[in-house]
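=== Structure Prediction Worksheet ===
Name of assembly: unnamed complex
Input type: mixed (protein and possibly other molecules)
Chain count: two
Listed entries:
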Amino acid sequence: MAKYLVLIYEDESAYIDPTPQVWQEAMEAHGRFAKQVAEKGGEILGGDALQPTATATSIRGDIVTDGPFAETKEALGGYYMIEARDLDHALDIAKLCPAPYGGVEVRPVMDTSGG
Amino acid sequence: MTDHGSPEAGAGAGSSPAPVRPDAPVRPDAPARPDAAARSEAASPDAGAAVAEAHRREWAFVLAATARVVRDLDIAEECVQDAYVAALDAWSRRGVPDNPAAWLTTAARRKALDTLRRDKTLRAKLPLLVEPEPEPEPEPEPRPAGAGQDDVIGDDRLRLVFTCCHPALAREAQVALTLRLVCGLTTAEIAGAFLVPEATMAARVTRAKKKISAARIAYRVPAAPELPDRLDAVLTVIHLLYTTGHTAPGGADLVRDDLADRAIGLARMVLELMPDEREIRGLLALLLLTHARRPARLDAAGRLLLLAEQDRTRWDQAAIAEGTGLVISALRGGRPGRFALQAAIAAVHAEAPSYDATDWRQLLGLYDELLKAWPSPVVALNRAVVLAMVAGPAAGLAQIAELEAQDNRLAGYRYLPAAKADLLRREGRDQEAAQAYQAALELADNDAERAFLTARLAALGVPGDP
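=== Predicted Assembly ===
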């Protein structure tokens, strides 16, 4: 078996202040997806919802800027999931992440446990 | 405390636990002004004045102390607004308390804790402000009246300031949050100051607050290693507020005194909280020395006057004296920073009896230092103008030409063609000067500057495009 990353791209505005119904449907749909993956003989190794791009912070070299990574020529090339105390700690760590031909974007992972 | 106005009064058996009226409305984006509550019939003029004064002086203190306990900026803000509304009513009836800040903080924290208890589910979903050491402290230590320099609560204001100016927030968001949360301005007021629609400013503030909680920007004063950079961001925001107030970004008003005064107030507050930081001293000095020239900046017709044309007897001598004193201590004790050096430059101008008697050589030396501390093309341009005063306009023009060739960051900077035009005029190269004034006019964005440039252009008497 080989590993694949499935990236979800959606219009964020659909999830701004979602009604309980929208939220419920999203949770159920992803629950169904998990079952279907198993039925198809695959396996989910991990996955998370991300906070919207408005909460992102980007780093190029040592320069920290508000907002998502502005892609020009660069393409998504890899990821790390890290645990950190707070954003300062996360940015401190992310500055060490090698990305000499571009940069990195730090996006908080959504806590869906309460939903 | 047995005084009439304490929030503890009335907390006895059977009575309402807090002076906050249960019917006090919770409006997410209500005006932060206490005078929004002026409709309260019981309001006495004394209480109204005391509430307004407390709003101006204590807003940051009360909000910062409340935010640390409830760990949510929105709830803290609403509850502080409600506390001010409640104060108007309570102080009218029972008199103004000895320590308004402590009264307001206690009222706001009570209200906040009530809100959180009432809405547990809301709290469970909220990403809370991150704090290094969790130390919820339901009752504030009342701050001794008149004190507040080195107590723990004083640090809460610093936490608030550093959180608002966090580098992971865009500069415009840092500015908006500082005005909203530290100064207590309404979204409408901030939008007005920056000439953007209120809805745009509201979205900017909301987005920034959401990022603070969702991305877990910690509510704390940065540790020593990161302090210089983080403090520089705070000082930059305050300086930007001042310059926005001093030179309005567009439209007819050249000076917005309220914004400039807010910036000076903020610089004073940050210096009071971090008295050993020389760059804060430098910034406050720079603002005071710039502000001192304000009465002489415009003529009776509202025309912008150059430093050379200003009536120096109208400069504010008290501000100059305070600013100069601060410059001296900001320069002492190690390599001075960019704000201290800019203040020193302003002090040289302030002390010169006339424009012609200005010590240009000393200024050139200070600009050399400033360029090392802060290698910015704008500083380099200013240095070229000073060089022209020391070595003649031709030397200044040669320096500017060199800058233009090596650094395209100056393209579109409106003072570049204006500076060039002046030097060309002094060299007698009127035709080129006229072209440069035209270029400056195209970039000018407020009426006073436009009028100034138009007058200069007309004085050249060069025929050109109307």
